[in-house]
Structures are given as structure tokens and as C-alpha cells.
Amino acid sequence: MDEKLGSAQGALIQALGRQSAFWGLGKTAGEMYAVLYLSDEPLSLEEVARSLKVTKGNISIAIRQLEQLGMVKRSRKIGDRRVFFTAETDFWQIAHSVLELRHKPEFAETFTMVNESYKYAEQAKPSPEKGIAVERLQALQEFYRLIDGIVETTLSMRPEQLKRIIKMIKIIPLKEKGE
Amino acid sequence: MDEKLGSAQGALIQALGRQSAFWGLGKTAGEMYAVLYLSDEPLSLEEVARSLKVTKGNISIAIRQLEQLGMVKRSRKIGDRRVFFTAETDFWQIAHSVLELRHKPEFAETFTMVNESYKYAEQAKPSPEKGIAVERLQALQEFYRLIDGIVETTLSMRPEQLKRIIKMIKIIPLKEKGE
DNA sequence: TATTACGTTTAGAAGCTTCTAAACGATGTA
DNA sequence: TACATCGTTTAGAAGCTTCTAAACGTAATA
Asked: How far is the CA of A13 from the C1' of C10 (A)?
């Protein structure tokens, strides 16, 4: 491989490995994606393993995560028993499925528990503590709904539409700061 | 403490501990915040430690994180050597500082490395591989800029303004799906 | 000054995650 | 059927994170 391309690959492996770990996907998953993302042709499991200097077993497990998130596609060549992998390049779609499959269930679970907490608080016998608890749990629920609204709305748009909206918002003076 | 309030607290501790871990803050930090969030008065370090059945040292370290993120305020009472803690209840402000202090530096670092990767790829000698690499690294850079724009714009608004925008977007038919 | 009551730091234990090496299973080929 | 070549699974090693217990530093009080 071209030396400069090798450096480019190295830098991207570092970059995406880091991001991937940050988002809770594990470093290897991001590194694998980086390798596939820069390849002009599908790579076999062993090729990926060799690029990253890790074992096949390691790749086998990590790649499943990536497939489940729609970040990697599996393909085959006729007359070849090996399995080949390709990076999904549509980041918007990836964002969709990551939020849908990883973040949404986590949020839903938490939201359920907050609701439960709220129900308990309501049943407590009157006291200043109860007052504070009920009030704050309501505020928390509302915040969750706001976040959910933002994410849902954002994902309902295509990137081009979003860019337009962002431009619009930047232009609008937003005078009403002291609401 | 009222039994129901105890249950409410337990549920919230679970909920926020979970979320906190999910966002990379560590379980204890979220649990501490939950305890403070439901309290109608500032709590001492030892009271928090007792509520969660962990050691003081543990709390001492975790609370520093929360302070740095602006999620908890420290206060004192005259004639009392103890330090008391209060939960910041403005989630919007918390979102701001968490994104600013935790996510932004991480993104900036990654973005720098992606740029570096791009520069290397440009310097490679012409080949199909190079073509793919340059093209894709550009796409990745653009995606990063989009995400950054979304976050910056979102944070530049007050929650009320955001809600209005979200409502607007939901009403607009967005016919142009096949762009 | 000695004592007490607090928060902080630190060394090490416990637990969890992630990796490797090797066995295993399955599938295509002679 | 026997063999070779893959991907997958698994038991255990290594490394990292997070917790505890205890020592330590500090500031107020007598």
C-alpha cells in the first residue's frame, strides 16, 4: 500500500477508534469501520484482522455489532467461501440506526423508571420534601420529552433540509432572549 | 423518610445511575445527582454517602466531576465546617456544559485527526484507492460539520424557542422527500 | 497547644471488559 | 468420504475502572 495512504489509514483508525469508544461501541469496532471505510473493495475477515493486528475471533464479534447497527454490510463472491465486508457510507442512515437501536431503548428504559419514581412521589404523604420531589420529577419528565422531540424531529429530516433550517435559524435575530 | 418517597428516590437513583453510566460519567455520579435532585435542602458529603451506601472518598471524587460539569453546587452554612451540595436543576444549562466540556473536546480531537488523515490521503500517488479515500474523507468531514452545526444551533436557542421550531417543522409537509 | 470533625488522597482489592489462543463446527472441494 | 478452509465460540489472561479502607491534611474549638 502507498505509504501516505497507510498514514491516512492510521490516522483514521485512531480517530474512529476513539469516537467509537466514546460512544460506547468499543474501540475495535470503530477501528474496523475505519479500515473498511477507506477500502475501495470489500475485505475479508482475515484482511481486516491483519490490518489491525488482532485475532479473527475479535473481529468476528466486533463486526456483528457493526452489522446490527447497519454500519457494515456482508457480501460474498461466487466460488469463494470467505465473507467480505463493506462499510456503509451513508452517515445519516447510520445515525438513524445507532440512535434507534442503542440510544432509544436506553432512554425508554430510563424514562419508564422516572415515571415510576414520579408515581411513588405522588403517593407520599404531604410534606415539603414531597412537594419538591413531585415538582422536580415533572420538570425532569418534561426535559426528557424535549430531548426526544429534538432527536425525533432531527431524524425526520434529510440532511439537506436540516442544513436549510439551520441557516434560517442562524439568520433569524432571535430577539426574544429575555423570555 | 416517608416510605413512598424512599421508593421514589430508589427509582430515580436507578434511572439516573443508568443514564449517567451510559453517557460515560460513571454510575455513582448519576446516583449522587439523583439523591441531591430530590432533596429539598443541601446535603453534606456524608449524608450523600450514607444514602448510597458508599464511602466518603468515593463521593468526594465523583462530586468533583459533577461540579466541573455544573451539575452540582457547593455551599456552606455559617458555624458549620461541613460542605453542602445542591443539584443544579436547569437541565438546559447542564446540557450546555456537558456538551461543551465533555463532547466538544472529544469531537475536536477526532476532527483534527480526520483532517490529518485527509491531508495524507491527498499526498498519496494517484490510484483508485486514493480516489476513494479522498472522496470518503471529504464526506466524513462534511458530516462532522453537519453534526457540529446541529448541536451549536440547538444550544444557541432557549428551550421555548426550540419547542416552537419543532412544532413548526412538524406542521410543514416536507414534500421534497425525493431530493 | 491538643482535640475533634471534616474532606481528600492513596494503595490496593474486586469486578468488569476486552483481548488472545485454541478448539470447534460448518461448508465447499477432490 | 476425507480434507482444507473458513467463521464462530469459549475459556482464560491481561488490562482497566471503580470501589473500599485507612492514612493524611486542615481548620475550627477548647
From this structure: 36
Taking the C-alpha atoms of residue A114 and residue A111, their distance in angstroms, rounded to an integer, is 5
* d(C-alpha B60, C-alpha B55), whole Å: 9
CB count in 10 Å sphere of residue B47: 18
- Grid look-up 451506601 returns B53
Burial class, A106, CB count within 10 angstroms (exposed 0-12 / middle 13-18 / buried 19+): middle
Q: For the segment A143-173, what is each residue's pLDDT rounded down to a tens digit? A: 999 999 999 999 999 999 999 999 999 898 6
Residue B33 lies in a domain: yes
Name the domain count of chain A. 2
Same-domain pairing of A73 and A132: no
Q: Are residues B12 and B70 in the same domain?
A: yes
Does B27 share its domain with B44? yes
Dihedral, CA of residue B111, residue B116, residue B118 and residue B119, to nearest 10: 150
Give the C-alpha distances (Å, rounded to integers) separating A116 from A104, A137, B9, B65, B161. 18, 10, 10, 27, 29
* Strand C nucleotides in reach of protein CB atoms, 7 A cut-off: 5-10, 17-23, 27-29
DSSP code for B127: -
Residue B176 forms part of a structural domain: no
Q: Which chain B positions have a beta carbon within 8 Å of A12's beta carbon?
A: 113-114, 117, 137
A172 touches B at CB < 8 Å: no
| Nearest to A56, CA basis, from A46, A43, A66 | A46
With cell 426526544, the residue in question is: A148
Residue B45's domain comprises: 3-87
How far apart are the CA of A150 and the nearest CA of chain B, in angstroms? 7
Q: Tell me: the pLDDT tens digits for B4-22?
A: 999 999 999 999 999 999 9
Query: Are B100 and B73 found together in one domain?
Result: no
Q: Are residues B36 and B77 in the same domain?
A: yes
Are residues B76 and B96 part of one domain?
Answer: no
Nearest by Cα to A152 from A90, A69, A68, A96 = A96
